[in-house]
């Protein structure tokens, strides 16, 4: 029968797909090479600077050579100071992130899914968003004191807006065509939200959470500048006041590593949810 | 039995997409809707599927007036519209929520077999070719055993060879439960291959121009003379439908001119 012939034709299509597959692995290998290329510049600059200081061409007092930064980092790590500070910073970001992200998701979902609620909520939130978040600091200190509460509040505000905007926008931009599939199968509002809207917004929600987390790390520095006795931000201020540029750079590196680590954890944690969509993610 | 009574649809912007459609589709019949672009074919299917509301008239399924999506009516869109986060088999099972797990699995694996995608059951839709995706979307509509199946140019984006193989998949699925099928197509060959009747439509406003019975015995031999004859008949009707609108407004204008004159 022709059905047989047709299925043979299909398998030959798949044969063609299998032949096409190696190009994607090749692409990946070329991509890996380019990642290594990205390491070249910073390493070269570090080595040059190290050599310049070693051979006495530069003093390296204000811009310490890599070896001194590493020494400072390991000294801080040995005394355990580094871990207390890093942990304190991480804890603040985490609490602020949870509060900010949770309220961002809830309000974003409300304003994305109901026109009335959007008209009620959105103008106020957009107006609040126009305020540079750091401007809240004096008020937060008056209201919440100079200790943890005001710091966490500032971080939460920083995290809230990108999450709110991302979630609301994602819900509004869900493909009408997929929603219609839900209508055809007569899903209730709740089922539609759970089976179509939620999975459809997940990829954008993850992106929103990631930018929220990034802002959380930005705001934790500001929060720790406004008076803290612990935290990586405190190390920065202390390094400046004591004239220790190596400590400042060590703290900056710790910030970078911590931020990257938190982001990777978030990505890894949400990966199973958006695996179907990994085409775009792999490039992020 | 699916029947349309004085069915009209005018969109919010004043476009008269359908005007006074009267048609009866018998149970188990395959009807092909053919017509130029913009004559309201998609609009008609969306009304039957309950995705839009008619402006006047009504649609009945076995006497029951339709209002909104009906459980016994399934639709296959022009694009596959698979849910990208569900595997192939979960996509097929999307409309089977009310059933027991065993029943659901049985139906899905049967459908997978029918469309020849058993080995792709656990893949994501994005890993399938366009034709494979469209097969999954046809299976998704069929597994709920609908009484009425609506197909909106489901094969128009595919090459002729893939299309011919999908026609067979479609007919073999149809053989099992013999649902009523309303198929929109631009392809006269496709209409003659699949349908028991061709309904030719005309635009501005969308209405029925002609109906042609296609009574060839199944399975149909696409190379035979009767097939050729049917194709030619439908083509001629389609031709007339495309020419007629120019003639009609002309007459209309003459009448208006005459009215002014007097
Ligand atoms: N949502 C809408 N709002 C306003 N007008 C619409 C809408 N959808 C369709 N139309 C108009 O209604 C008419 C019929 O459209 P429809 O999509 O039903 O045509 P069709 O027969 O399916 O055409 P094609 O063969 O090109 O798919 C067209 O003139 C179109 O512009
Ligand atoms: Mg159409």
TrEMBL record, chain A:
Subcellular localization, as worded in the UniProt entry: Cell membrane
Domain of life: Bacteria
Main location: membrane
GO cellular component terms, A-Z: plasma membrane
Annotated function: Probably part of an ABC transporter complex. Probably responsible for the translocation of the substrate across the membrane.
Residue stretches spanning the membrane: 35-58, 90-110, 130-146, 152-172, 215-236, 248-268
The name this protein goes by in its record: Sulfonate transport system permease protein
Chain ranges of the ABC transmembrane type-1 domain: 86-267
Keywords: Cell membrane, Membrane, Transmembrane, Transmembrane helix, Transport
Family: Belongs to the binding-protein-dependent transport system permease family.
GO biological process, one term: alkanesulfonate transmembrane transport
Topological relation to the membrane, as annotated: Multi-pass membrane protein
PANTHER family in UniProt: ABC TRANSPORTER PERMEASE PROTEIN, ALKANE SULFONATE ABC TRANSPORTER-RELATED, MEMBRANE SUBUNIT
Keyword Lipid biosynthesis among UniProt keywords: no
InterPro entries xref list: MetI-like, MetI-like_sf
From TrEMBL, chain B:
Keywords of this entry: ATP-binding, Hydrolase, Nucleotide-binding, Transport
Tagged with keyword Hydrolase: yes
UniProt entry tagged with the keyword NAD: no
Domain of life assignment: Bacteria
Example GO molecular function: ATP hydrolysis activity
SUPFAM superfamilies assigned to the protein according to its UniProt record, in alphabetical order: P-loop containing nucleoside triphosphate hydrolases (SSF52540)
UniProt-listed PROSITE patterns: ABC_TRANSPORTER_1 (PS00211), ABC_TRANSPORTER_2 (PS50893)
Record EC number: 3.6.3.-
ABC transporter domain segment(s): 2-228
Family: Belongs to the ABC transporter superfamily.
Listed name of the protein: Sulfonate transport system ATP-binding protein
Gene source species: Microvirga lupini
């Amino acid at each position: 029968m022709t059905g047989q012939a047709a299925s043979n034709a299909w398998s030959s299509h798949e044969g063609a797909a299998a032949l096409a597959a190696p190009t994607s692995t090749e692409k990946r290998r070329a991509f890996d090479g380019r990642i290594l290329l990205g390491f070249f510049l910073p390493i070269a600059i570090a080595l040059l600077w190290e050599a310049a200081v070693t051979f006495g061409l530069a003093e390296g007092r204000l811009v310490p050579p890599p070896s001194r930064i590493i020494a400072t980092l390991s000294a801080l790590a040995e005394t355990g100071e580094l871990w207390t500070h890093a942990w304190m910073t991480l804890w603040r970001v985490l609490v602020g992130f949870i509060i900010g992200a949770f309220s961002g998701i809830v309000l974003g979902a409300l304003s994305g899914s109901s026109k009335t609620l959007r008209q009620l909520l959105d103008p106020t939130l957009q107006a609040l968003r126009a305020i540079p978040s750091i401007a809240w600091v004096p008020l937060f200190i008056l209201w919440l004191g100079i200790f943890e509460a005001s710091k966490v509040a500032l971080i939460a505000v920083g995290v809230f807006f990108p999450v709110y905007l991302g979630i609301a926008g994602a819900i509004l931009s869900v493909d009408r065509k997929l929603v219609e599939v839900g209508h055809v199968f007569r899903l209730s509002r709740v089922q539609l939200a759970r089976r179509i809207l939620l999975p459809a917004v997940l990829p954008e929600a993850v992106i929103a959470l990631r930018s929220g987390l990034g802002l959380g790390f930005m705001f934790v520095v500001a929060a720790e500048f406004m008076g803290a006795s612990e935290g990586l931000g405190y190390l920065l201020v202390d390094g400046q006041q004591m004239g220790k540029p190596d400590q400042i750079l060590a703290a900056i590196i710790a910030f970078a590593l911590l931020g990257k680590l938190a982001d990777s954890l978030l990505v890894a944690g949400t990966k199973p949810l958006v695996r179907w969509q990994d085409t775009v993610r792999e490039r992020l | 039995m699916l029947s349309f009574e004085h069915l009209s649809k005018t969109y919010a912007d004043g476009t008269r997409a359908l005007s006074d459609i009267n048609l009866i589709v018998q149970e188990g019949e395959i009807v092909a809707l053919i017509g130029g672009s913009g004559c309201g074919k998609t609009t008609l299917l969306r009304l039957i599927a309950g995705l839009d509301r008619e402006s006047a008239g009504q649609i009945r399924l076995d006497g029951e007036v339709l209002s909104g999506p009906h459980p016994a009516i399934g639709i296959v869109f022009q694009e596959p519209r698979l849910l990208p986060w569900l595997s192939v088999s979960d996509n097929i099972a999307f409309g089977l929520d009310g059933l027991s797990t065993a029943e659901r699995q049985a139906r899905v694996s049967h459908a997978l077999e029918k469309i020849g995608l058993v080995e792709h059951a656990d893949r994501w839709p994005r890993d399938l070719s366009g034709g494979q995706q469209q097969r999954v979307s046809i299976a998704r509509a069929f597994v709920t055993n609908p009484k009425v199946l609506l197909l909106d140019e489901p094969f128009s984006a595919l090459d002729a060879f893939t299309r011919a193989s999908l026609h067979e998949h479609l007919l073999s699925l149809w053989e099992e439960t013999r649902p009523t099928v309303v198929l929109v197509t631009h392809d006269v060959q496709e209409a003659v291959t699949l349908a028991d009747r061709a309904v030719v439509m005309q635009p501005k406003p969308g209405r029925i121009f002609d109906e042609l019975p296609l009574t060839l015995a199944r399975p149909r031999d696409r190379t035979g003379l009767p097939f050729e004859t049917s194709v030619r008949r439908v083509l001629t009707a389609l031709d007339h439908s495309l020419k007629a609108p120019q003639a009609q407004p002309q007459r209309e204008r003459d009448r208006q001119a005459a009215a002014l004159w007097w």
